Amino acid sequence: MRKDYNVYSCFGQNPETCFSPLDVNFYERSCFTVARELLGSLLMSFAGGEPTAGRIVEVEPYIGAYDRACHAWPMKRTPRTEAMFGPGGRAYIFFVYGMHHQLCAVTGPEGTPDAVLIRALEPIEGIDVMTRRRNQPMKRLCDGPGKLCSALAVTSELYGIDLTDPSSPLTIMKGNPIGDDRILAAPRVGVAYAGPYATVPWRMYLKDCPWVSVKDRSAVPYQSLPKNTFGPR
DNA sequence: GCACAGATTCTCT
DNA sequence: GAGAATCTGTGCG
């Protein structure tokens, strides 16, 4: 069934590469590294009984130890944040504003509550299904964290599932690498309360990409950022 | 294209 | 009880 995916034509060349899930070793690294490398990879969903998939084009890292924008700051372990303390590669799914779900990939080793919020996808597979679920034009199917969860039928029922398991209803597959010169960095969305972490340019998205949620005029080239941009302040 | 307001329920204090 | 890692429809230019 997965052999029918449009990702063959999208990702091209090597079907084995297309369907190789990112493993625990990928996720159990720095949250910033994982966020950067998730750009271009493929989020595949079988939730809701119908296959849908999209290429990740926008991400935001959240660091539990010191980042006040993170739900698990400061190392706050509650039933809601429990999944973030688990091993890398698990899904941290939460509910906001009374109506929207959002999806994060847990990073770092077990006990490290870091995660990457997946904010936007380029729709690749199951576009008719997504359109039916969203009742919106294609450009607006996945251009926001709540929207993509709606399009891919991601709900809190999938809380904590293993994204590295190809038999899981939600999996992230390797994609074609994205060069640093194709990435922009900007402040994260909706974290004005986060003190010094409200304005750090930790949101990463693809340049000239029509599928991202918010294009920020203050965005800078990823490769222009000083090395200490990603780390404790 | 942009700005604004309202929706609605979970989580934590 | 307050606030929230958002989305959509509407109105305006």
Automatic annotation (TrEMBL):
EC number(s) reported in the record: 3.2.2.-
InterPro entries the UniProt entry points to: Formyl_transferase-like_C_sf, MPG, MPG_sf
UniProt KW DNA damage keyword: yes
Gene3D superfamilies: Methylpurine-DNA glycosylase (MPG)
DNA repair found in the keyword field: yes
SUPFAM superfamilies: FMT C-terminal domain-like
Alphabetical keyword list: DNA damage, DNA repair, Hydrolase
Family the entry assigns: Belongs to the DNA glycosylase MPG family.
HAMAP family per UniProt: 3MGH
Full protein name: Putative 3-methyladenine DNA glycosylase
